[in-house]
Design goal:
With 287 residues, the chain is mostly helical. It folds into 2 domains: 62 residues; 206 residues, MetI-like (MetI-like fold), CATH 1.10.3720.10. The chain is 72% helix and 1% strand. Strands 1-2 form a two-stranded antiparallel sheet. Helix 7 packs antiparallel against helix 10 and helix 10 crosses helix 14.
Length: 287
């Protein structure tokens, strides 16, 4: 009887996993199929689930340019892709460096008002971007940073940095203090201990936190839409929103742009998958 119950549990578990995988992969699979279809395939009744002929025109326009010289929403996508990569990469590196040092201070050092300061740093996580976008816009404009990548880097750091501090604080709490004390006894300085002992042992946590920081910055739309109106700083998320115009929506081109926009986070998640799992589990155990 017990074996039968265990067998049913395994069956239900696999069924739940299959349903979850389908729910996650089905929308993305349809996005890829749509990007390779023609407009007539997507608007025909009944719907053509698989295109009769593969359409690669939008991908050619994105990477090779428009041979006909006609205006196309794809022509600015490489520039937007570069802007997004530059902004997200800079935000990730800066927040990992500063956030890790701040998290170390909160977990290892004792100073007056530590708890209050920690809550103050986390406060931006509870404030929606729409509540602060007007004062943020006025500050950025007064500094002369409108339509620059630096403006978006500053805006994204204000939201990403508190999350990094929170995640890395949980991970540093799980690192044994004995290793650090042994290094200090051997003559290693405080910063030497951080960069030679703590951070190398914290690679999984850094990978997980870095991926979250990159995805948040990469997907950010509202601040980028308000603070950038030229190709000097427009991100790929803002450019994709411009595929919808008064004359209609180019579904195929938008799908192709969506596939391109999804590749960097997906590639990073695949590369750092092992470290991400280790970081998420280790950071939740104090020890």
């Amino acid at each position: 009887m017990t074996n039968k119950k265990n067998r049913w549990k395994i069956v239900l578990l696999y069924l739940a996993v299959i349903i979850l995988v389908i729910a996650i992969l089905a929308p993305y699979s349809w996005l890829v199929i749509s990007s390779l279809s023609y407009r007539v395939d997507l608007t025909s009744v009944p719907l053509h689930w698989l295109p009769e002929k593969v359409n690669l025109e939008n991908y050619k326009e994105i990477f090779l340019g428009n041979e006909n010289g006609m205006s196309s929403p794809n022509k600015d996508l490489p520039k937007g892709l570069f802007n997004s990569l530059f902004i997200a990469g800079t935000v990730t590196l800066f927040c990992l460096l500063v956030g890790s040092l701040a998290a170390y201070a909160f977990t290892r050092l004792g100073f007056r008002g530590k708890s209050s300061l920690f809550l103050l740093i986390l406060a931006p996580q509870f404030i929606p971007i729409i509540a602060v976008i007007i004062p943020l816009y006025m500050v950025i404009r007064s500094l002369g940073l409108l339509n620059t990548r630096l403006a978006l880097i500053i805006a994204n750091c204000s939201f990403v940095l508190p999350l990094i501090v929170l995640l890395m604080s949980g991970f540093f709490s799980s690192v044994p203090k004995d290793l650090e004390e042994a290094a200090r006894i051997d003559g290693c300085s405080r910063f030497g201990t951080i960069f030679r002992i703590i951070l190398p042992l914290s690679t999984p946590g850094l990978a997980a936190s870095g991926l979250f920081a990159f995805i948040i910055s990469w997907n950010e739309f509202f601040a980028a839409f308000i603070l950038s109106s030229t190709m000097r700083s427009k991100t790929i998320s803002v450019l994709i929103s411009e595929y919808s115009s008064k004359v209609g929506v180019d579904y195929v081109a938008m799908a192709a742009a969506g596939v391109i926009a999804s590749l960097p986070p997906v590639i990073m998640a695949i590369i750092f998958q092992k470290y991400i799992v280790q970081g998420l589990t280790a950071g939740s155990i104090k020890g």
